[in-house]
Design a protein that fits this description.
10 strands, globular, about 40% helix, 11 helices, about 280 residues, single chain, four-stranded antiparallel β-sheet, alpha/beta
């Protein structure tokens, strides 16, 4: 049996000391298989530990106890070339499509830094071809975006550029922390479609962090539902969402609005008495 691509074992993260402690993660275990590539959703309400888990996988926070193994190696023990290789194979796409950019540099700088840091190209022409290919994967062209500054692009363009930057490194895993929560509905569908195409065509797995179970149902292969830092339910995304076993899962799923053309919205504006005065 092949070793998992990502194997999280009893991950626990506690902040603070003594009596003033907060447990953000509590014995979380999760596996992402090597083959085939999968989109594994981490779902839950705000404060459930989703982003803490993502940051632990990315190496931004150190676990209090437990292990995160990537291709059989303990991420906490990586250093030097091993850590650099891990950074190449595990990339991130964050929630805020503006905050990750340096506003003083054009978009081209995002790709130049990556190419130089990881020595991806031997010439400017080769670097240009790599960047153009990455942008084409997300439906953009270099001539349209590379010389612009971040504020000159839409939120959807900025987020797609972040996916292109991640793809440039040909990673094995992309940690996507609520990547569609700050873009409008049409671009949300486009970004989710890009994720599925990268999974199917390029063999890239995703750890998809979200509180939106409707998108988890749409794109997720597996799902892990967190509540107060602990796993309450996990398994096949379609099965868990259609037939939840845990009460918290049922509450989350029942909160999803169901479109019904027979239900009309009450559009009347009713002001409180004190406002009328």
């Amino acid at each position: 049996m092949d070793r998992p691509l990502l194997d999280i074992k009893n991950a626990t993260k506690t902040y603070g000391k003594g009596r003033q402690t907060v447990t953000a993660l509590r014995d979380v275990s999760l596996t992402v298989p090597t083959q085939p590539a999968r989109i594994v959703t981490i779902a839950g309400e705000s404060g459930s530990g989703k982003t803490t888990l993502a940051n632990a996988v990315l190496g931004f926070v150190t676990l209090t106890s437990g292990q995160i193994l990537f291709e059989g190696q303990d991420v906490a023990r990586l250093h030097g070339h091993g850590l650099l290789e891990y950074r190449r194979k595990v990339q991130a796409v964050f929630q805020d499509p503006f905050g990750v950019y340096n506003p003083f540099y054009p978009v081209r700088h995002v790709f130049d830094v990556v190419i130089k840091r990881f020595k991806l190209a031997r010439s400017k022409g080769e670097a240009r071809d790599l960047v153009e290919d990455a942008l084409n994967r997300v439906g953009l062209r270099g001539a349209e975006v590379l010389d612009n500054h971040p504020h000159q692009l839409s939120g959807g363009q900025r987020q797609r550029i972040m996916i292109a930057r991640a793809y440039l490194l040909k990673p094995r895993l992309i940690v996507a922390d609520e990547p569609v929560s700050m873009v409008d509905a049409s671009l949300r569908a486009m970004i989710l479609d890009i994720m599925m195409r990268l999974r199917d065509e390029q063999g890239i797995s995703f750890l998809y962090i979200t509180h939106d179970l409707s998108t988890a149902y749409q794109v997720g292969d597996d799902i892990c539902i967190l509540y107060r830092g602990a796993v309450v339910e996990q398994g096949n995304a379609q099965q868990v969402i259609e037939d939840p076993q845990h009460e918290y899962s049922r509450l989350l799923i029942s909160s999803i609005p169901v479109p019904d053309p027979t239900v009309t919205w009450d559009t009347r504006a009713v002001l409180p008495i004190e406002e009328e005065a």
